[in-house]
TrEMBL record:
Native species: Fusarium oligoseptatum
Gene3D superfamilies: Metal-dependent hydrolases, Urease, subunit C, domain 1
A Pfam entry, by short name: Amidohydro_1
Source taxon at top rank: Eukaryota
GO function terms (MF aspect): hydrolase activity, acting on carbon-nitrogen (but not peptide) bonds
Lineage: Eukaryota, Fungi, Dikarya, Ascomycota, Pezizomycotina
PANTHER family linked: ALPHA-D-RIBOSE 1-METHYLPHOSPHONATE 5-TRIPHOSPHATE DIPHOSPHATASE
Protein's name according to its UniProt entry: Amidohydrolase-related domain-containing protein
Residue ranges occupied by any Amidohydrolase-related domain in the UniProt entry: 57-381
């Protein structure tokens, strides 16, 4: 059994812990064995190989709770693309998983992939055949005919139909259920404000998933869909954009109170607010997202970090961009770190496995230049990443944002037209 001591100028074991100056973490195989001050533990580490990372902050690896590994973020993509075979998707998904590691992400939820592609990659990572973050996979989202992401194959209708589709995901080995409660602008003819499933169907999904021990999350951009998910007592809401029938994003305090009362967590996918040109839609403007996030925080509604990486111009490695949106909304560095680590672990059912640096926990570690407690922009400079005890040795610097304004403008026009919105380009 191999052991390695990883030393750093600063070690932050969890979002609520004191910062350890000149700290060390002892890793043996895929587990953490010791955490503490170097001066205190040095004698216990005699004969153990020491990796000194220098002037960095070593902390738990990050969670990205909303990614799409089968998509290419370099340009236009829509949920209706079907030309690539499942076999051809695996190399792309493997490369995208590696880019998540570049950002310091050691756990990710893939919330929409065709067939068994995500589970195949998940299991390859588990077996050590490829290096990547721990994956939780939803496979094809539950949707309606001509609904958002219907090309992935999860079309169902009626109470018995949705129950059967939940059972199918369980049989496939999926980790959670993903539902398309509303339309989405990436699927032509699918309006982001309109609810797709009835309340009876939403409740049936939740009941069947609960019976099988599976959490349920949902794409819900429109307020109507958000409310139905809250009433059905889903585990979490993705996006939560508060879009009304008129196309405006207006925070609804009455519905938000339901999220709070029923203990739903929001994964707000902030990175769409980081695109320089407003290529998405009016509700993706940075000031709109910041305002809605501030309202969630004021009400005490839990959040977890997710990027929506994979959709056009949301690269997997630019995770840190979205954290600046949370900071703009008034979240403190410790609150942001919690949403990216231990709180996210709790919401993903992994609170006893990862999300903090403690003996017995998985060796999921990430080190960043500077001190994230003082400046959240430190997350843009990962210097060391280890997932389940395996170091990501090909850590690449986070590339700068390229000038793709014309491509973004074209994408704005195409996607808004498909969603029935008038382009503002």
């Amino acid at each position: 059994m191999t052991a390695q001591a990883i030393r750093a100028a600063r070690v932050l074991p969890s979002s609520s812990s004191h910062l350890i100056q000149d700290g060390v973490v002892l890793v043996q195989d895929d587990r953490i064995k010791l955490v503490g001050h170097w001066a205190t533990l040095e004698k216990d580490l005699e004969g153990v190989a020491v990796r000194d990372l220098g002037d960095v902050t070593l902390m738990p690896g990050l969670f990205d709770c909303h990614v799409h590994l089968q998509l290419d973020p370099s340009g236009i993509n829509t949920s209706t693309e079907v030309s690539t075979t499942d076999e051809e998707l695996i190399p792309l998904m493997t490369a995208n998983a590696s880019r998540l590691l570049d950002a310091g992400v050691t756990t990710a939820r893939d919330l929409g992939s065709r067939g068994m592609t995500a589970i195949l990659l998940r299991d390859k990572i588990k077996k050590g055949q490829v290096i990547g973050p721990r994956l939780q996979c939803a496979n094809a989202p539950l949707t309606v005919e001509n609904g958002h992401a219907n090309a992935m194959g999860g079309v169902c209708r009626g109470v018995e139909g949705v129950r059967a589709e939940v059972r199918k995901r369980h049989a496939e080995g999926a980790d959670l259920i993903k539902v398309m409660a509303t339309g989405g602008f990436m699927t032509a003819g699918s309006h982001p404000s309109k609810a797709c499933f009835s309340q009876e169907e939403m409740t049936a999904i939740a009941d069947e998933a609960r019976r099988l021990g599976m959490p349920v999350t949902t794409h819900a951009t429109g307020t109507e869909g958000i409310e139905r998910a809250a009433d059905a007592r889903f585990r979490s809401i993705e996006h939560c954009a508060w879009i009304t029938e008129s196309g405006n994003a207006t925070f609804d305090k009455r519905v938000a109170q339901k999220l709070l009362d029923n203990k739903l967590t929001v994964c707000p996918t902030m990175n769409t607010a980081c695109v320089e040109h407003d290529y998405f839609c009016p509700w993706d403007k940075r000031d709109v997202i910041v305002s809605n996030l501030r309202s969630l925080r004021d009400m005490g509604i839990r959040i977890m970090v997710g990027t929506d990486a994979g959709i056009g111009f949301c690269p997997f490695e630019r995770y840190a961009d979205g954290l600046t949106v949370l900071a703009d909304a008034g979240y403190t560095p410790r609150e942001i770190i919690a949403a990216a680590t231990d709180m996210a672990a709790t919401e993903c059912g992994l609170s006893e496995e990862t999300g903090r640096l403690e003996p017995g926990y998985a060796a999921d570690l990430a080190a960043f230049s500077g001190n994230p407690l003082g400046d959240i922009r430190a997350f843009a400079e990962p210097r060391f990443v280890m997932a389940c005890g395996r170091e990501h040795k090909e850590l690449r610097p986070i590339p700068p944002v390229g000038d793709v304004s014309e491509a973004k403008k074209m994408t704005l026009q195409v996607l808004r037209r498909g969603a029935g919105l008038q382009s503002q380009a």
